[in-house]
Design a protein that fits this description.
The protein has 184 residues and is mainly alpha-helical. The chain folds into 2 domains: 96 residues; 77 residues. It has 7 helices and 2 strands, in the order E-H-H-H-H-E-H-H-H. Strands 1-2 form a two-stranded antiparallel sheet.
């Protein structure tokens, strides 16, 4: 794709015009930000319901817990892994479109930074916790906003990863993650 396109920033078309009902609060939140929040809430609820109550969601949890035992119970783990990657890729595509719409431009490397931040948010919130990942993303965003507002935008990533190190030292399972003890 890099050879077919270019590494330069390209403009991204505005997919959503400013909502008229957002005019009184347009200095606080733009329509693209409202769209990001709404899409995040809907995606989080749907993914949580899918993982908890669907047959494939139960198979995903079983495969994540113990792949060999899931296979012995008749779960086609290759199909489960494929569906997991399809869902993850679909959610990443939605996130990429939302980020590009919000920024107004796109380039070849835009997904790398978003992926690093998403991984950091997932670790902050607790690996395996969908609401924890959302909470981790909010905390990460607030940390970066305060760092750029009060210190300097040059240190945005330093504060974000410093927070990650701080959480990993004092709460290795993440904010909403559960600590498990292994019985021998």
């Amino acid at each position: 794709m890099l050879l077919a396109q270019t590494s330069d920033f390209l403009s991204f078309p505005t997919l959503v015009d400013e909502f008229s009902f957002m005019e009184p609060v347009s200095h606080i939140m733009r329509s693209s930000e409202l769209l990001i929040v709404a899409t995040t809430l809907v995606s989080t609820v749907l993914l949580t319901l899918f993982i908890k109550f669907s047959r494939m969601g139960k198979a995903m949890r079983a495969t994540a817990q113990d792949k060999t035992m899931a296979m012995l119970l008749g779960i086609n783990i290759n199909r489960v892994i494929s569906v997991t990657f399809i869902i993850g890729s679909g959610l990443a595509a939605i996130g990429g479109v939302l980020i590009s719409n919000h920024i107004g431009q796109i380039n070849f490397y835009i997904g790398f930074i978003a992926g690093i931040k998403a991984f950091t948010a997932a670790v902050l919130g607790g690996i395996g916790s969908i609401p924890g990942a959302v909470l981790g993303g909010l905390i990460l965003g607030w940390t970066e906003s305060f760092a750029t507002g009060y210190v300097s935008s040059d240190y945005e990533d330093v504060f974000a990863f410093g927070l990650l190190v701080f959480i990993l030292i004092f709460r290795p399972a993440g904010i909403l993650g559960r600590t498990t003890t292994d019985k021998v």
